[in-house]
Design goal:
- By secondary structure, this protein is mainly α.
- Helices cover about 85% and strands about 0% of the residues.
- It contains two helices and no strands.
- α1 packs antiparallel against α2.
- The longest helix is centred in the C-terminal third of the chain and has 30 residues.
- The chain is elongated and about 45 Å long.
């Protein structure tokens, strides 16, 4: 569970910072940040959901 949350946070915060220099255009950078944020939040929510369901 902890590893999945760490991966989600890394995708949410670190990946946009690392890839921002390779993306040209203000709108493309915004889109990259938004996609990474959505993917990170989905991973974190799915991990918490699975923990709640399987720990009962």
């Amino acid at each position: 569970m902890i590893i999945s949350i760490i991966i989600g946070l890394c995708i949410w915060f670190v990946v946009p910072i690392l890839l921002e220099g390779h993306i040209k255009g203000k709108n493309n950078k915004k889109a990259l940040r938004m996609v990474c944020k959505i993917i990170g939040v989905v991973i974190i929510c799915w991990t918490i959901y699975n923990h709640i369901i399987y720990s009962l």
